[in-house]
What we know:
Layout: H1 14-24, E1 27-31, H2 37-42, E2 48-52, H3 56-66, E3 72-75, H4 84-88, E4 91-97, H5 105-115, E5 116-126, H6 133-152, H7 170-180, E6 185-189, E7 193-199
Parallel strand pairs: 1-2, 1-4, 2-3, 4-5
Antiparallel strand pairs: 5-7, 6-7
The protein binds S-adenosylmethionine.
Amino acid sequence: MEMDSYWNHNTAFHDELIADAKLRGGRVLDIGCGDGLLLQRLSPCVPQVIGIDPDHTAIALAQRRLAAISNVALINSDFLTVPVPMQEEQYATVISVATLHHMDLRSALLRMRQVLAPGGRLLIIGLAEDKSLMDLVISGSLLLPIRIMDRIHGGIGNPKVRISAPKETLREIRQVAKEILPGAKVRRRFYYRYLLSWDKPLE
Ligand SMILES: C[S@@+](CC[C@H](N)C(=O)[O-])C[C@H]1O[C@@H](n2cnc3c(N)ncnc32)[C@H](O)[C@@H]1O
């Protein structure tokens, strides 16, 4: 049975991320892995899973959760400044859920591109700041349906992880992604999230 399972606006995307990673297999990196719930769910589906997070509390929770699972490794570090060995490794799938807005956008996308293997896929579930009238109208229209879904799921589970408010709008994220990850798709999703997906060309 799954330890300390919960549902929230981030875990709502787990099934789709896992199904996508499973298509490629290989090594999967979860950047900002928090308490490791996604790593736990990925572990039976791919050969190797690596989680990285600079928060000691989150990593301790993940260690506890993943203690009996052999194909998962944890790195207690900042993804942007992680020591050399990690920088040289490449992953078939790089996932990051609700974490990109904690980092400098440009530096994070550049490093994500670097650690992704040729032919691999980057999948980011992100949060954007609502600034334009269009953003506010879209988020406002989602309020009631999302409340209903929260109720259906028995409320939102909040793991003990660091949170912060998004600082870039979806428009700004699209602009930077277009430059760093040519061909990336950035789509609004339910639960006030977006999905950025990018396939790294084969060299
Ligand atoms: C809102 S939590 C999301 C955690 C998890 N992905 C989830 O969906 O529950 C954001 C996470 O990003 C981590 N984080 C912040 N800055 C980071 C960085 N530079 N490198 C890697 N992880 C980072 C935080 O410690 C935190 O665990």
